[in-house]
Amino acid sequence: MFISFEGLDFSGKSTQAKLLVEQLRQQRHTVHFIREPGGTVISEKIRDILLDKNHLEMSDAAEILLFSASRSQLVQQVIAPALQRGDVVVCDRYCDSTTAYQGYGRGLGLEDVQTINRFATGGTMPDLTILVDIPIEEIERRKTKAGLTFDRMESAGRAFYERVRQGYHQLAADDPGRWFRVDGMLSIETIQKEIRKAVEKKSAALAR
Ligand code: ADP
Ligand code: TYD
Question: How far is Cα 122 from Cα 195, in angstroms, rounded to an integer?
Answer without folding.
Answer: 27
